[in-house]
Automatic annotation (TrEMBL):
Bilayer-crossing regions: 33-50, 70-92, 112-133, 145-163, 175-194, 200-217, 224-240, 284-306, 312-335, 347-374, 386-405
HAMAP family: NhaA
Compartmental location: Cell inner membrane; Cell membrane
Gene3D superfamilies: Na+/H+ antiporter like domain
Entry keyword annotation includes Transmembrane: yes
Reaction catalysed by this enzyme: Na(+)(in) + 2 H(+)(out) = Na(+)(out) + 2 H(+)(in)
Sorted UniProt keywords: Antiport, Cell membrane, Ion transport, Membrane, Sodium, Sodium transport, Transmembrane, Transmembrane helix, Transport
Record's bilayer topology term: Multi-pass membrane protein
Protein name: Na(+)/H(+) antiporter NhaA
NCBIfam families with a match to the protein in the record: NhaA
Pfam families assigned to the protein according to its UniProt record, in alphabetical order: Na_H_antiport_1
């Protein structure tokens, strides 16, 4: 007889996880919320600067080249942000995903099926909408089919922080896990569909430093002066192979062990690295990338309207707003329908609707895929940026309305948990005993 997770009654979706996981997720969300605020600030500065009389300075800064030409790493600052800094972002996402499925609440297939299905639905429907709206625009436009499939967790959490909603921990955990799975699927899409030319020799050579990195971390080596050069060489070789260099971040993350040795104190190595690199990812890597990627010169109101009228921008915007909402909400309903599970006590489908709208906030990875699909500085890339900005903003506004309406209800749920907390600070609902097998 299987035993359900403590505090999670059988036959429920969005039930409470274990208390250690809830606390850990809370710490992650606080870090991502700060990063989201910096991300928003960087995007606003880029937009204002790109539409000011000093727009040429902004463009020149992004096109400034830096790096050794002999190693084919004389990249622009914009390329360093997209290829280099985002590798850190995907390294952290890979660590989080591996930890969730190895040691987190999602090691249970029963709990993992919901966010995985929601992520798949939230990527499939936006892509179909984009393709439908661009079917008559030619093959070049269809290259952007994956742009509206991504969810930006930092941006979404920044919205939650601004509207001060008391969203229950189970829903926040679901949103974070959905976004992490979303990121992994996005990196698979980038590797498979946006690799223009593949050079096998550097890719095979990259396996050597990657294997050595994996061997050291499996032996619990934490010395940065050993690991960082191996990671850098792996990244450089993957970059030289033609595969997008951010793939290296995920590959490196998957080699890091999650579980600590029985005799060793403290967190596992994956959690240790995540704690070290998440501030760098959320507060530096993503905001800097957003600064270089979000600056689109719209050319006044007429230029903005003309750009949004392009089928590419329209497909991205509608895909993010309608596609993400229908995909996430529909997949969640299907899981509930076929498993005959019920929503956890105190939650309703309006809450799932609000989360699905938040999933339509695509930014970081959407902008990255837009550049890969159409090229840096291309007209359709600029239209893509308009679609991403409009779709994300509309999704954020609609999610704000729905979640603010439900906020008083969330406050009441939170008050019950805090009232039931013992002297140890752990709410009673997380201390339910496991039934005997």
């Amino acid at each position: 007889m299987t035993t359900p997770t403590p505090g999670t009654p059988s036959g429920q979706i969005f039930g409470r996880g274990s208390w250690p996981e809830v606390r850990r997720i809370g710490d992650i969300l606080r870090a991502e919320t700060v990063g989201g605020a910096l991300l928003l600030g960087a995007a606003v500065v880029a937009l204002v600067w790109a539409n000011s009389p000093w727009r040429d300075v902004y463009t020149g800064l992004g096109e400034f080249r830096l790096g050794p030409a002999a190693l084919h790493l004389d990249l622009t600052l914009g390329q360093w942000a997209a290829d280099g800094l985002l590798a850190v972002f995907f390294f952290v996402a890979g660590l989080e995903l591996k930890r969730e499925f190895v040691a987190g609440d999602l090691r249970s297939p029963r709990r993992a099926v919901l966010p995985v299905a929601a992520a798949l639905g939230g990527m499939t429907v936006p892509a179909l909408i984009y393709v439908a709206l661009n079917a008559g625009a030619g093959g070049a436009a269809l290259r952007g089919w994956a742009i509206p499939t991504a969810t930006d967790i930092a941006f979404a959490l920044a919205v939650l922080g601004v509207i001060s909603t008391h969203l229950p921990a189970a829903l926040r955990t679901f949103l974070l896990t959905l976004a992490v799975v979303d990121d992994l699927l996005a990196i698979v899409i980038i590797a498979l569909f946006y690799t223009s030319s593949l050079h096998p020799v550097p890719l095979l050579l990259a396996l050597l430093p990657l294997a050595l990195f994996g061997l050291l971390v499996q032996r619990r080596v934490r010395s940065w002066w050993l690991l960082l050069p191996l990671a850098a060489v792996t990244w450089a070789l993957v970059h030289a192979s033609g595969v997008h260099a951010t793939v290296a971040g995920v590959l490196l993350a998957f080699t890091v062990p999650v579980l600590r040795r029985a005799e060793g104190p403290g967190p596992g190595l994956a959690e240790h690295f995540e704690h070290r690199f998440r501030p760098l990812s959320a507060s530096v890597a993503v905001p800097v990338f957003a600064f270089f990627a979000a600056g689109v010169s719209v050319g006044g109101l007429s230029g903005f309207v003309a750009g949004l009228g392009d089928s590419v921008a329209l497909g991205v915007a509608v895909g993010l707003v309608a596609g993400k909402t229908v995909g996430v909400l529909g997949a969640t309903w299907l899981v509930q329908r076929f498993t005959r599970a019920q929503l956890a006590e105190g939650l309703s489908w309006w809450d799932v609707f609000g989360l699905a709208l938040l999933g339509g906030i695509g930014f970081t990875v959407s902008l990255l895929i837009g550049e890969l699909a159409f090229g840096v500085g291309a007209e359709r890339t600029e239209h893509t940026k308009i679609g991403v900005l409009v779709g994300s903003l509309v999704s954020a506004l609609l999610a704000t309305v729905v979640l603010r309406i439900r906020n008083r209800h969330y406050e009441n749920l939170q008050a019950v948990e805090e009232r039931d907390a013992d002297a140890d600070g752990v709410p009673d609902v997380y201390q339910a005993r496991r039934p005997e097998s």
